[in-house]
Specification:
The two termini are 12 Å apart. The protein has helices spanning 19-28, 45-55, 86-96, 99-112, 118-123, 134-143, 150-156, 173-182, 199-211, 228-239; strands at 4-5, 33-35, 58-60, 62-69, 72-79, 186-189, 216-221, 242-246. Helix 1 runs parallel beside helix 2. It is α/β, with parallel strands linked by helices. The model has no long low-confidence stretch (mean pLDDT 98).
């Protein structure tokens, strides 16, 4: 069976490793088919593709787009698109803009609760000045000993109602799906189990996503708990979505799952790669 990992990050967004190092780690972990899906960024694709080619690792273009839907943040993964598509390139650049200003506001809030220097501190972990993320602040808070690990940070800081949370307006769902499809790719809902949606909201979201041409959802992901694998396999069947699998790997020792280290998709779903020439 193919080991397919279609969701992970490099230091072009909030991962810790360069794209070529992520490729090498995927290969070492036994991954056969790989996509790098940096947040709102395709700047790592050239390096990722070249590294994968040299390693004999089958490579698919990828991105994870930040979206605001009904006032909540959701993530849409795009796979197999033409990364030179002008509308996609422009849309992602627009989506990235505003992160630096947001980061200054986050740092201001943290300073107000006695944690100074967070902007500069986070910046030490940033590989791409266009993409300062909450993850970089989380690493700085761990470095300072404010929290034991990044999971603890995301319970006590940087989330709604806690210091360092700055609401942000990301891309529209229709735009994100449109950019991906317009560039010949397939749109997939990232980690649907992670959103704090009611059943009704999840249903409305998935219906709208499908209506816009969205084709898949992640079923087996490092951002789901094991009991969510069968739950979202059932959701995929019910809505007629293709199923995806990805570790959501960010950094050694930090992420829930390492590259390629997840159970296979349940046999009851149709993999998003079912009609790819692999
Ligand atoms: P941002 O795009 O700047 O809002 O940052 C979002 C990133 O923060 C996600 O892609 C994750 O890498 C990280 N993140 C968010 N929530 C959590 C969490 N509960 N535990 C660990 N990482 C998280
Ligand atoms: Mn991330
Ligand atoms: Mn995500
Ligand atoms: Mn991710």
């Amino acid at each position: 069976m193919l080991n397919v990992d279609l969701h992970c990050h490099s230091n072009v967004s909030d991962g810790a490793l360069a794209p070529a190092a992520v490729a090498a780690r995927a290969k070492a972990n036994g991954v056969d088919v790989w996509a790098l899906t940096d947040h709102d960024e395709i700047g790592g694709i050239a390096e990722a593709r070249e590294a994968a080619r040299a390693l004999g690792l089958r490579y698919v273009t990828g991105v994870e787009i930040s979206v605001t839907w009904a006032g909540k943040t959701v993530h849409i993964v795009g796979l197999g698109f033409d990364e030179t598509n002008a509308a996609l390139v422009r849309g992602l650049a627009d989506t990235r803009s505003g992160r630096e200003r947001r980061a200054h506001e986050m740092a201001g809030q943290l300073a107000a609760v006695g944690i100074p220097g967070a902007f500069e501190g986070a910046l030490k972990y940033v590989g791409n000045p266009d993409l300062i993320s909450r993850t970089h602040f989380a690493r700085y808070l761990v470095e300072r000993g404010v929290c034991r690990d990044t999971a603890e940070v995301f319970r006590n800081y940087l989330v709604e109602g806690k210091p360092g949370y700055v609401p942000h307006r990301w891309a529209r769902l229709s735009d994100a799906v449109g950019w991906i499809r317009g560039a010949g790719g397939v749109a997939v809902v990232a980690h649907p189990g992670r959103y704090d949606f009611s059943d009704l909201e999840l249903d409305a979201f998935l219906n709208e996503f499908r209506q816009l041409g969205g084709a898949g959802i992640e079923v087996v992901t490092g951002s789901h708990t094991p009991d969510e694998f069968p739950r979202f396999a059932e959701v995929a069947r019910r809505y007629g979505f293709l199923a995806s699998r990805g570790s959501d790997f960010h950094a050694p020792g930090e992420s829930q799952s390492d590259l390629g280290a997840l159970p296979p998709l349940p046999p009851s779903v149709v993999p998003v790669w079912h009609d790819w020439r692999l």
